[in-house]
Amino acid sequence: MAKFFKRGMEVTFTVDDFTLEGRGVGHLRPGDQVFSEGGSAYTLGKGDAPVGFTIFTSHVLPGDRVRVRLGKTKKRYGEGDLLTILEKSPDRVDPPCPHAHICGGCPFIALTRDRELAFKQSMVRDVLERIGRVDGQDLGLPEMVSRSEWAYRKKVNLRVNPDGLLSYTQSASMDLFPIEKCPIVRPEIQDKIDLWQEEAGKNPRFRAIVRKVRMIVIRVSSLGETLCFLITDPIDDEDREELFGQLSPLAFDVLAQSANAQEGDVTMGEEVFFATPKTSIREDLMGYHFFISPPSFFQINGDIAPLLYDQAIRLLAGPEDGRAGDRVLDLYCGTGTTSLLLSGKVNQVLGIEILEEAVEDGREACRANGVDNVSFLPGRVEDLLASPVLEDMAPKKALVDPPRKGLDPRALEAIGNSTIQDLVYISCNPATLARDIEALSNFSFSLEFIRLYDMFPKTSQVEALTLLVRDSHSESK
Q: Do 318 and 466 belong together in one domain?
């Protein structure tokens, strides 16, 4: 089919499904209309060339009948901006968010709760069948664990617009819009956002200095302690002092700043400066105390995290499942959350984490909790797994909780060539999980258990907990 569509043309169609990222996708059918740039309409008939053309667009739900304006187009598909919803999906509800029409952070904000959970279940099953080559008959529809979909986020990343206001980025663009209310963040975070916006509205000096900030990370702990981490343009000591001074009325328990000289980059620089005596906030989880410094990772949903970790521990150290060995590896261990939670169930835990600040947080947590059977190695998982450091330990089981990109190919090979027999894999990206399951099947690992946890309600993300077991007849080094 020769390219028919051009940027600026408009079409009507019914949304069929979601992509993995939560965008709506539909296909032109007979009866749909195509509008030329001049406004004249053509109704598609059976056999017309445009029938079957695929369109992706945001802020829509399956079942919505919509009119969109096309942007980028290819021969067989295009992307469009929503103009209007002609007929609403029966699964559409009025979202409690003033920014739902422009914010891309919560693509399921207007979707009924039941349909949101069902989509996530079917999405995970589909990618495991298609990418992971897992038998769908054996897999079934994975069980989903969920709690409230509102006011759950304990961490949020924000930007600053030219007026000094805390902002999110609009979907499908780099434009910023100031935040009025965000229904998925914890009330303590919303309070800090309100205070910031108030200061920016009345204080010219505040507005001027915060324009040097590229990104703001705000956290709240289970104890109500708050942390604010600022990634800024390169600034001198005088600017830093003024920045900290202007933010002092917001009364963060931890206030820190790091500069990045790379234009547009929002990763932290080499040095972190603190305006507060405290350099970390305390998080209590399942009877243990953890300490979170500005760059450290910690689960953002305090209602779901204990349920996820409790089941992970049962898979690794359950007394009746025959897999309760004495030594466990905790790969990509972050601040050592799972390492400490496992410490009371097994004799030895070794955590591996590339971020040295997170390793120090883990060691501090061990000291604070009186835990002496957990140790940490800073470094890359793929390097340390294949090193002589682990030869004496010869672990039979491990837990891995990698970033969204999944396991590095070298890490997959190192796991495959290790003594590990039972691998608990926690994933926030079903596509990379499925890819890694397929890769590990080459080393005789197979999927024995899966359960989903709705860690990120109203987004397209879902947390998966899996157990991969190596065939007992296979050989490992």
A: yes
